[in-house]
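Fold this sequence, please.
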Amino acid sequence: MHKVTILGVQIDSFTNEELKQKLEQYLFDQKPHLIVTPNPEFCIQATRDHEFRDILNSASLAIPDGVGLKFAGWYLGQPIARRVTGVSLVEELCRQARDKNLSVFFLGALNNIAHRTAVNMMEKYPGLHVVGAENEYDFLGRKRSDNALVARINRKKPAILFLAFGAPAQEKWLARNLQYFETVKIAVGVGGSFDYLSGQVRRAPVVMRSLGLEWLYRLMKQPWRIRRIYRAVIVFPMKVIISKFFQ
């Protein structure tokens, strides 16, 4: 494994086998590990939010999520071996948790999306032990404090925590609270992955995913995302091109 730097964000490059081995190592380590999933939007946000950039660069593992990062790595002469979507990362960790008899906790998103995600993962990986699937609000609709959420997680004793608060909130929340987890070995911010894993949002067809056109499918299905897609598809490449002249 090696690091690739794009707009100041250090991203890991690895093979499938290297990733699986690294995740397995973390699951039996003595300390919790923060995993982040940078994409082009993360990199743009990190250029103006240095706290976010520092969190990304201090994480145990930075998973390249977004075909734009692969193109950027190639253009900068720092090729990235492969990209891994947040959905694929969740599925791989659930598979490992099932095989190693470890428990997982799904936290975040709206309504009952975390619960539906958990149900779908248990159906896909029979025997998966889910100890929590909820959002950060109490039954009165009030947002729970960091201490209250950490206490709930510690009572359930998961080995893996999936957090879907959206970036950069989820990364900052994990960075603040990672040291207080008693049993968590891997904590990862997964953004909108619950939406796909729960069935709330359909993924792009395989052909479009293989061609790196997921952004176009999302734009067709969710035109309100146009500002985010503009940043990822137009602004990000421009910044990468410019950055090459200052290397």
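DSSP finds twelve helices and eight strands in the chain. The chain has one domain: 2-17+26-197.
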